[in-house]
Amino acid sequence: MNQALQAVLENSGNIVFFGGAGVSTESGIPDFRSADGLYHQKYRYEPETIISHHFFMQNPGAFYDFYRDRMICPSARPNAAHRALARLEAGGRLKAVITQNIDGLHQMAGSRNVLELHGSIHRNHCMDCHRAYSLQDILKEQGVPRCSCGGVIKPDVVLYEEPLDADVLERAVFYIEQADVLIVGGTSLVVYPAAGLLRYYRGNKLVLINQSPTPADHQASLLIREPIGKAFEGMDEPE
Ligand code: APR
How many Å lie between the centroid of ligand 1 and the Cα of residue 28? Predict the structure, then answer.
């Protein structure tokens, strides 16, 4: 457990968390921009091309090959960071988790107020009749999953060239504006509009937990350069 982090958390009743793929790497899900991240692995197309709207529309088969292979990790389970954040919320001290992740691990750890800026692998819909489908419906098939009406099923994840959900964004701004402590963890803060949300924070207790430098490091009142699961270890266990 990181003692400085614990001291900050113990003295606040209005904490908001903003996270990215680095929160789930200790659960076995690769992030995007670390050396071993998705964007540094060789594919026929650039990964950031594959997870774009126009690529999905033109090559749904190649999209699903990459998506099933690299963006869905059914065996992943919450780590100490997910569990600690859920405990802070249960104790009434953390008001919201705002995540760029689509893996659902915060909810699996027990967090209830989770704002998924980039959607979720657990929500899918038919592009023709809009019928909803589960992650299992996507995993149990090969190739392009199709609805009973014949339409193509699309994951409810925000692809490049697609807008973020306005209501989710608005709620994220609301919580960040109200926050006493803002913890930012496991994100390179290079993708907008998500990264731009930090400008709404009006407090002076920005905690940044990231293994590599970010553009917001100079704004942090507490900068922690260690694995985020390790930093929260011990705070995820019942007292
Ligand atoms: N503990 C702390 N930091 C970590 C850990 C860890 N265990 N593992 C990785 N990191 C850090 C990395 O050093 C990196 O700076 O987390 C950051 C992850 O950054 P990215 O891989 O860029 O992921 P993220 O910031 O979530 O990307 C944002 O980009 O492609 C889009 O939609 C995708 O939501 C994603 C968005």
Answer: 13
